[in-house]
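Entry type: protein chain
Record version: 2
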Amino acid sequence: MAGIATRLLQKGVDHLKSKEFRDYLMSTHFWGPIANWGIPLAAIADTQKSPQYISGKMTLALTLYSMMFMRFAWKVQPRNLLLFACHFTNTTAQLTQGVRFVKYNYVVGKENDEVVA
């Protein structure tokens, strides 16, 4: 059992040392999605804030943007799964924000808000 784990670990280390992996790390296929992760991380952080600050138009725009680029990441060859995961996460976060926006503005209402001076 330990021999299998050792071989798998060695195979993983060899992959990390390979020229192909280094080339991947230096490509836009890697750095583009890494730079894009700021959007879903901000949306996830915003789920802890009051829904009165949510922009419905921007939430809709970001949802549609991420849905289009999620499709692009799937269709482009070679497939960019890192970009797909980024936009899938953002779509989910934006839909969560959209539900919070609709619930606050149209279902529950703003009656429970304190007046902020």
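Comment: The chain is about 75% helix and 0% strand.
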